Amino acid sequence: MSTHEQDGHVELERDGHVALITMRRPAKRNALNFPMRQGLRDAFDEFEGDPDLRCAVLTGEGACFSAGGDLVEMANTKMDVVPAEWNQLLGSGAPLTKPVVAAVNGPALAGGFRLAQDCDLCVAGEGTTFGITEAKRGRGAPWAAPLTAMVPARIMMELLLTGEPISAQRAHEVGLVNRVVADGEIVAEALRLAHSIAANAPLSVAAGKRLVRLAADLGPLAAAEPADWLYLRAYTSEDAQEGPRAFREKRPPVWQGR
């Protein structure tokens, strides 16, 4: 096995307005060593910076989405508290303004669970499992705090305290996963979902993404007033005129993102 294959890399492919971002370290279950983490940052920086890309799909090569942090790397570096760069996996700057769909094609464990959690939507295969396994290795999962807005408290407690994975179907039942499909259809379904998002007005999509995060942080009542501000740019954009005009003219809208 070459050093490149051992270290792994992250590849961005373009499919119209959608970016397919693939973690390629299958022999190591897409474990997140430094080259993989940096590859993710670079790929998502490219995605965020390209106005022609409107949605991304994140998946892993092989039979595992990601087993999480590279435990060999952790042991070799005697890692204690996780460095700050671990908190910047989906890009190196501010939070992404565009949506990301996780296409979870196998176990999503520890840091792999975090990647799926940090995406905006999630498509999983029937054979997929999700687990926060840090307690089994004496590690921690402070990044799991946003789960409180995704799943019931007792499910979150079970995940954190037992370290035992749950099935894709169970993850769907508790609200962690949007769609469960046959294992061979995961990426295709995620791409279909991403293209349906990319076909919509970019400013409305960006505002919708921010609204969900804002409401989760503030609660629905506190978020109501700033919600009007979030959508102001969409309402006053050229696209807001293009949508009704295209409907009237019985044609697909041509979005400009402005």
UniProtKB/TrEMBL annotation:
Output the InterPro entries linked to this UniProt entry: ClpP/crotonase-like_dom_sf, Enoyl-CoA_hydra/iso, Enoyl-CoA_hydra_C
Determine the domain of life of the protein's source: Bacteria
Keyword annotations from UniProtKB, A to Z: Lipid metabolism, Lyase
Tell me the GO BP annotations in alphabetical order: fatty acid beta-oxidation
Name any one GO molecular function: lyase activity
Please list which residues make up the signal peptide. Answer: none
**PANTHER family to which the protein is assigned, alphabetical:** (7AS)-7A-METHYL-1,5-DIOXO-2,3,5,6,7,7A-HEXAHYDRO-1H-INDENE-CARBOXYL-COA HYDROLASE, ENOYL-COA HYDRATASE-RELATED
- Family, per the entry? Belongs to the enoyl-CoA hydratase/isomerase family.
Q: What is this protein called?
A: Enoyl-CoA hydratase
What is the organism field in this record?
Nocardioides currus
